Backbone:
């Protein structure tokens, strides 16, 4: 039995979604190709009142709990999250919190901490 897979970045929290069971669902229980199940289910956001600043804080805290140093990555994390579909779609919500400096080329790849030898 083969396991069906897909890969996309959640357009709300930037989580990497690799398998159908990790994807959110629309109102007809079909898998979303844009959002993970932690952010989206039954055709709506799980936490519709969540703000951009709160999402940035959650992602930063999650990365920190995995042992990553987030102090130097905060601006990149903020720009990445602000550029996702959920946050771009809300008028004025795509602006970064004023305490976060911007960078010219926002890129972030979220992965497990690699071992150095």
Residues:
């Amino acid at each position: 039995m083969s396991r069906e897979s897909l890969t996309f970045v959640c357009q709300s929290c930037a989580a990497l979604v690799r398998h159908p069971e990790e994807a959110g669902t629309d109102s007809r229980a079909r898998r979303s190709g844009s959002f993970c199940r932690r952010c989206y289910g039954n055709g709506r956001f799980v936490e519709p009142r969540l703000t951009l600043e709160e999402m940035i804080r959650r992602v930063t805290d999650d990365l920190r709990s995995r042992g990553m140093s987030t102090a130097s990555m905060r601006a990149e994390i903020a720009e990445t999250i602000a550029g996702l579909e959920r946050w771009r779609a809300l008028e004025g919500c795509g602006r970064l919190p004023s305490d976060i400096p911007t960078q010219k080329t926002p890129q972030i790849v979220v992965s497990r901490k690699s071992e150095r030898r």
